[in-house]
């Protein structure tokens, strides 16, 4: 039987513990909370691994466009234009995308496939198909050669067998792994040689954090504040990251809330010598005034 989830963070209001977020935290240098071997759906935290798999299959991107391929972007004009650049490089247009149309995560904009936060990943997916000589039709099917290649690489970097295949919010296949496996995958990215696909993804994420997320987003701020960090957030309270020395972590919040994630990530990074508590500070308000905060355990 898996170990039960443990408290990751408490919500303090006027000195009173109002609620507690349970979850699992894996650390590659030992310790953690809950059960590091519990299986999760890593959601968008998996995107840097998917991007590395696409490079191995023939995708030719670097710099901000490679960061965008691994992004849950905010849907700002430069994100939309970047996705169009990925498509144009493969002789494609937004009409070839098959992700779910959506509004931008931040700011105004149209509800369409380019605004949706995974458009960079989907643009890279069909660009990979063109580079590899695969049909772009059905590229979201888990049986498509593209998704088979991604699944194999997920298993390689995580060290886990994929136990579950789900449909992510954007429509792409989502491959399960363990919390510890997700941390191992990020350690592999962060320590990879520069000329490898994993090293190229790590370099792109480190150099272009606003393309991976967006201005003011917690994941972008952590990347900007911690030298050499490779990190990615995901829906349902998932986050993973790693330092260049191979220390890595992954966290999943049992109730799926994103609220405690910044505080937990900041506590992990502070423990590794990077004081970023300000980024992790999540206030609790009463009548518009801060009366408490979310506190990592």
Cα-to-Cα separation, first versus last residue: 24 Å
Give the CATH H-level superfamily of the domain at 6-57 and 147-296. DD-peptidase/beta-lactamase superfamily
Give the averaged pLDDT, no decimals.
97
Q: What sort of overall outline do the alpha carbons produce when their principal axes are compared?
A: globular
Characterize the largest beta sheet: strand count, sense, and whether it forms a barrel. 8 strands, antiparallel
CATH class of the domain at 6-57 and 147-296: Alpha Beta
Count of helical regions: 11
Whole-number radius of gyration?
18 Å
The beta-strand count equals 12
Task: Label the structural class.
Answer: alpha+beta
**Which percent band covers the strand fraction?**
15-25%
Quaternary state reads single chain
Secondary structure: helix percent = 25-40%
CATH topology title of the domain at 6-57 and 147-296: Beta-lactamase
Elements, N to C (H/E): EEEEHHHHHEEEHHHHEEEHHEE
**Ranges with pLDDT <50 over ≥5 residues?**
none
**So, CATH architecture of the domain at 6-57 and 147-296?**
3-Layer(aba) Sandwich
Protein name: Asparaginase
């Amino acid at each position: 039987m898996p170990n039960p989830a443990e408290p990751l963070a408490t919500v303090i209001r006027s000195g009173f513990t109002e609620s507690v977020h349970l979850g699992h935290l894996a650390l590659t240098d030992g310790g953690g909370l809950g059960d590091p071997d519990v299986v999760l759906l890593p959601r968008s935290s998996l995107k840097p691994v998917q991007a590395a798999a696409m490079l191995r299959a023939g995708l030719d991107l670097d710099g901000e466009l490679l960061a965008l391929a691994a992004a849950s972007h905010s849907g700002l004009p430069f994100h939309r234009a970047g996705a169009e650049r990925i498509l144009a490089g493969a002789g494609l247009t937004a009409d070839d995308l098959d992700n779910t149309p959506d509004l931008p995560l931040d700011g105004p904009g149209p509800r369409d496939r380019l605004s949706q936060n995974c458009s960079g990943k989907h643009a890279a997916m069909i660009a990979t198909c063109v580079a590899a000589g695969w049909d772009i039709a059905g590229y979201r099917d888990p049986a498509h050669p593209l998704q088979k290649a991604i699944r194999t690489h997920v298993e390689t970097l995580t060290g886990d067998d994929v136990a579950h295949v789900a449909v992510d919010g954007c429509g792409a296949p989502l491959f399960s792994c363990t919390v510890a496996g997700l941390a191992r995958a990020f350690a592999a990215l962060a320590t990879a040689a520069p000329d490898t696909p994993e090293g190229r993804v790590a370099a792109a994420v480190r150099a272009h954090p606003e393309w991976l997320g967006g201005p003011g987003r917690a994941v972008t701020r952590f990347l900007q504040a911690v030298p050499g960090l490779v990190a990615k957030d995901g829906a349902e309270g998932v986050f993973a990251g790693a330092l260049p020395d191979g220390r890595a972590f992954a966290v999943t919040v049992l109730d799926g809330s994103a609220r405690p994630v910044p505080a937990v990530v900041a506590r992990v990074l502070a423990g590794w010598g990077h004081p970023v508590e300000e980024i992790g500070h999540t206030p609790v308000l009463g009548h518009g005034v801060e009366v408490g905060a979310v506190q990592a355990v």
